[in-house]
C-alpha cells in the first residue's frame, strides 16, 4: 500500500460512505474532501465533514499507518494542530492533539471494496514489460497526451533550473561561462559528458575570452586539461599542442589535469573526444559573446549558422593523433547541432527567460516543435503503445515521464494513471 493510493481514494471518495465511522465509532459524513496541498503541511486543506451534529472545516492528513504521524514528526509541528481528520489505511497507534484529545481517525481499509483494490493492483502493481499502465494507454486520448506532454516538457525544463542556477552562482552570474560549461558537457555526449563538464568547470572563462581568435590555443588548453596530451608526442601536431598547453597552464595558473580518462571505445570516429574538442575550440575561437548571440536568434536556422564550423585542417585527415585516414572535413552536422539544441541551448534560453521574470513557454514550444523527434528504446516503446511522439519536445516530455513517473511508479501523480483510476 502506498500513500499515493490513499490520496487517490480520499480525493475521489473511492470508498463506501455508508455507515462511515471513525475508529472510536463516531458516525461521520464527508461533505467536501478538501483541496490537495502540494506544499508543506497537511495533505488536504479546507475539507468539510459532519460529525456529532457539528460541521467541521479544516485540514485532513493521510498516512498508511497512523503511527507515521510520529515518524514524520507532526506532533512537533503546529501546522498539524488544526487537523480535523486523520485518514489511515491501518490504525496501529492512537494520535492525539497537544491537549491530549484523540484526533478523529478513519481506518480506510474497512471501507474500500475488493474491486477497487483489485483495479489498483491490476493497473499499477503487476510487473509490466514497459510501464505499469501499458495495457491501458489507449484509454488516454491523443488530445490529452498532447496537453500532458506540454506540461511534462515545462516540468523537465524546470527540473534543470537548479543545476543551471548553481552554475550561475558558481560563475558569479556569468551566463557566457554557464553556456561554455554546459556546451562542453554536450560535446562530450553521454560517454564523455561528465569528463568534459569537469574539465570546463576547472577553466576560468576569462581564459577562453583571452584566447578568442586562437583556435589551436583553445584546443591545446582543452585537450591538455582533459588529459589527451599526456605521454610521448605521437606526431608534430601533438607535440605543438603539448608545448602550447604547458605554456598556458603556467601562464593562467591552471590546475594539473585530474579528470578521469576519456573514452574512445564504442564511439563512432566522428564522436571521438579529439574531434569534438577540436570543433568546440573552433566554435569559441570564432565567436565572442556566444551566449548573447544565441539568445538573440529568432530561429533555429540562424543559430545553426553560428555552429557551422569545422575542426582545424589537421583533423581533415585524422580522428586521433598520428593515425592518418581519408580526407574528410570534420564539420558540425545538423543532427549534432540538434542534440545541442535539445540538451543545452533551448533549456538555457528557457532558464534565462525565467531569470528575467518571463515564462519563456511560447519560445520553448516553438523551438522544440521545429526539432525532429529523438529515437531510443524508451521512446520506441511509447510509440509502439500508440503514444503520440511528434517532435523533440514530445521526446523530452516522454523521457521525463518515464524517468520521473513510470520508473518511480508515481502513477497517481501522472495524468494518465489519474485518468485510468478515475474513469474506472
What does it look like?
The chain is an alpha/beta fold and about 425 residues long. The protein folds into three domains: about 110 residues, no CATH class; about 120 residues, no CATH class; about 160 residues, no CATH class. About 50% of the residues lie in helices and about 10% in strands. The strands form two sheets. Strands 1, 2, 3, 4, 5 and 6 form a six-stranded mixed beta sheet that branches. It has a two-stranded antiparallel sheet with strand order 7-8. β3 and β4 form a beta hairpin. α6 packs antiparallel against α14 and α9 crosses α11. The radius of gyration is 28 Å and the shape is elongated. About 35% of the residues are buried. The model has no long low-confidence stretch (mean pLDDT about 90).
Annotate the secondary structure layout.
Blueprint: H1 3-11, E1 29-32, E2 35-36, E3 44-51, E4 54-65, H2 68-71, E5 83-90, E6 105-107, H3 114-125, H4 142-159, H5 161-170, H6 175-187, H7 189-202, H8 205-210, H9 215-225, H10 236-251, H11 273-286, H12 290-296, H13 300-307, E7 318-320, E8 323-324, H14 334-355, H15 361-369, H16 377-384, H17 392-406, H18 415-422
Parallel strand pairs: 4-5, 5-6
Antiparallel strand pairs: 1-3, 2-3, 3-4, 7-8
